[in-house]
Amino acid sequence: MVSASQSSLRLSNMAAPGRQVCQYIFKNNGILFPNLEQVLFHRNFVGISVFRQQPVEAKKDSSEPIIVPRKKVWSKESVLEALARTVRRDPTAYPYQFQDDPYLSPRNSAEFKLYSLSQESGRSAAKYFVNSYPKFFTKHFAEPHIPCLMPGTVSLRLDEVSEEALKERISLRKVKAAIDVYDQLLQAGASVSMETIHDLLDLICLFCDRDPVQEHEIQTEDMESGAEVRKRKGKVRRASDLLTFTWREDNNAERIFNLLPERDTRCYSALIRGMVKHGAYVKAFSIYTDLLNNRLTGDIHIFNTLISAAPEVRDKYIDRWNLITEILNQMNQQKIQPNLQTFNCVLKALRRCGTLARTLALHTLSEMTALRIAPSLATFDHLLAIFYKAASAGQGNTDILQEVMSELAGKNLTSQDPGDVLFFTNAMRICLDYKDLELGYKIQNLVEVGENWRLLGDSYQQSIYYGRFFTLLCMMEHIDVVLKWYKELIPSLYYPNSQGLRELLQALDTDSRLDMLPSIWKDIRSLGHDNKPDLIEEVLTLMTREKHSPEVQESFATCALDIKNAFDGHTSRTNLEWSTPTLSHVTSLLLRSNKIQEAWEMLKLFKEKNRVPSDELLEDFLSVCRSKGSAQRAVELVELSAAFCLQATSRLAKLTLAKFELSEDQITILSELESAAEPAD
Predict the structure, then answer these.
(1) Residue pair 571/530 in contact by the 8 Å Cβ criterion
(2) pTM of the full predicted structure?
(3) Which of 13, 376, 455, 532 has the fewest beta carbons closer than 10 A?
(4) What is the 3-state secondary structure of 612-637?
C-alpha cells in the first residue's frame, strides 16, 4: 500500500518537469503564445486560464512585483451584514417594527391594524411638524447624516416672478402656484426653458391639474366630478374610485400644451401618460395621432402607455389585439427598442382578450426570449392569470406554474415592476385551488431565498399569502407538520383569521389530535377570536363529540370554564349570546370531569336564557349524581325538568326513586312531580 504522503510526493515529482518546461517555453518564447494573457501554475498540476481572447503583447519581464494592499476597505454596513447572516428569524418574536414597546405589541389582526395605523399617524404628525416648522430643527446630530430624514423645505422662499420661482414650485409640487407663475411669465413676455416646461407638464399631468390631496382629505368637487363620470358611463364602482381624478376637457395641461410654439416628444409623452392615467383613453390616442402628423417619433413611455390603454378603446378581443400589434409595428418602424415594461403591458392587456390570450401570451414570451429580455415576477403573474382562471380551478394542471418555478428556483429576485408583489400571492392561490402541496413548498422555498420575502408586498398581501399557504398545509399535510408550521408562522408572520383557525381545527379532527384543542383555544383567545360564536361552537362540538381519557377530559373542562367566562363578560366581550348547543356542550364537558357544581350552574343558565336542555343531557347529569351519591341534587334536577315542562320529567322521577336513597320529603316531592308529569288519559 502507498501512503497518502508518498502519493502526494509522487504527483509533485511528476508535475515538476511539466512546470519547468512550461515556464521555460513561456519565458523565452512568449511570442508563440500571443493569445495567452495569464498562466496559472498550481501546486500539484499545471493549469492554464485564458481571460481574454484578444491578442496582447508578450511580456518581456515576468518578474513584476506583486502589490498587496495594506488595508481592505469595507463598507459601513459590512459588519452588520456579516452578523445578520449568523442569525435566523425568531418565530416566537413579534415583527421588528413592533418591538419598540413589547407591552403594545399586537397580538391579533385587529391590534395589528390599529398599531400600524397609529405608527403611520405618528410618522405623519412628525413629518408635518418637521416640514412646517423647519426652523426648530436646525441641529444635525445624526451620525451618519441621512439627508432624506432631515426636514425638507415646504414653504415658498422666492416671491418674484422668475423661472427659478417656477422651478421651486414644481419641486414642491405646488401645481396651482406653478401654473400661476408660468402664466405670469408668459404675460411678461419672458422665455421659459423647454426643460422647465417638461417638468411643469409632468407635474400637471401626474396630479390631473390639481394640488396633491393631503391625507384624510377629499375635495368635494373631485367627488362630484367622479359621480358625474360614473353616472355618464352607467357603471357601478367601488367607493375608493371617488378619490380617482378624471381628466377634464381643456384643462391647464392641454392649454399650456397648445400654447407651446414648439412641441417635442417629451411634451406629447407627458400629455398622453396623464390622459391614460386619468381615464381619457380615446383622447390619448388622438394626441398620439397628432404626434405622428407633426412627423415626430414617440418614446418608449408613450408606446407602453398606449398598449396598456388598448383594451379600453376596443370592445372585441381580436380588435384589441390588432391595435396592440399595430402599436408594436409602429415601435419597430420608429426604431424604438421594447423593454420589460413593454411586454408586461402586452401581457396585462392580453388578460382582457379572452380565448385569444393563451396562444398570444406564449408568442409574447418567445419574443422576449429572442430579444434577451429577462421576465420579471409581474411577467409570470400575468402569464398565470391568463392560464389559470379562478372559475375553472381544478379543471387543468399546473404545468405552467411548474415551469415558472423551475425557472425561478434558488434565485435572488429584485423588483423590476410594480406588479411583482402580486406573484407569490396569486401563485399560492393556484396551489390551493389545485391542492398541489409540493408546488406550494417550492413557492415558499423561493420566498425564503435571500430577501425575496420583500416581494410579498405590504402586510395585507403577506397575510393573504401566508393564509393560503397555511390553509393548504391544513388540507394536505400531516398534523405534526401543520403544527410545526403553525409555530413558525404565528404570530411572527401571520395573524390567522377565523377561517384559518377552522381549517386548523379540521386538521386536528382528521388526524385524531383533539387533545390539542385546549392549547389551540388559548391561541384563539390571544388572537382575539374568542368573540366568534361559530368558532367557539366548533371547538365545543369537537371536544364533546367523543369521550377521552380523564386527563384530556379535565383539560377540556378547564377550557369549557374559560369559554364560560368569555360568555359571562369576563373578557369584556359584549357580542356573545348563549345558544342551546353551546350551553349543552359546556355542561356535558363539566359533567364528564365530575364538576357537578359548575354543571349545575350551567343548567340554571338554561332557565335564565330561556333555553331548553335536552333529555339526554339531563339523564347524563342524573348518572353523575348517582355516581357521586348526591340525592338532593338529583331531586333538584327533576324539579328543574318539571319547570321546563319536559316529557322526560316522569322518567327522571322514576329513575331517581329507584336508584337513590331518599328521605320521606324527597319521595313525596318526586311522587308529586311524577304524577303531574304523566300525560292525562
Answers:
(1) yes
(2) 0.79
(3) 13
(4) CCCHHHHHHHHHHHHHHCCHHHHHHH
